[in-house]
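S1.2 Input.
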Amino acid sequence: MSKPASRGRSLARSLAVQALYQWQVGGQPIVNVVPHMLTDHAEPKTDAAFFTLLVEGVAEHVNELDEALRPHVDRSLESVDPVERAILRLGAYELKMHQETPYRVVINESIELAKVFGAEQGHKYVNGVLDKAAKDLRPFEMAAEKKTS
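S1.3 Output.
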């Protein structure tokens, strides 16, 4: 993947966290949040199609994403900080639905998002939860990686 595409996807993930936070906290329908975020908050290099895919995908699959995350959180998912919950859902969505993105990329991007938007040590929590979730959601990828290392 080229650097510009990578940068566009990183910007899309960043915007997606903000959109998911707004959706979770504000309760607006996701169909209203997406165009608002693209119009008012997207940077020029943001991969708008990827952003839309992520946000709509998380909203559509939120129950199964929460089920995938639940065994790996140390409290109820509803009590996890809303920003970190948005990041966890986004990470779980990519791990589950976008096998073309290496799990390490998903986790690293999620950690960076938590450093920017989350609580002071939130990135450590996000890392721990998604690392455990990846073992369930990407077992073959993780096993193949262990064989080569």
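S1.4 Remarks. The two ends are 23 Å apart (CA to CA).
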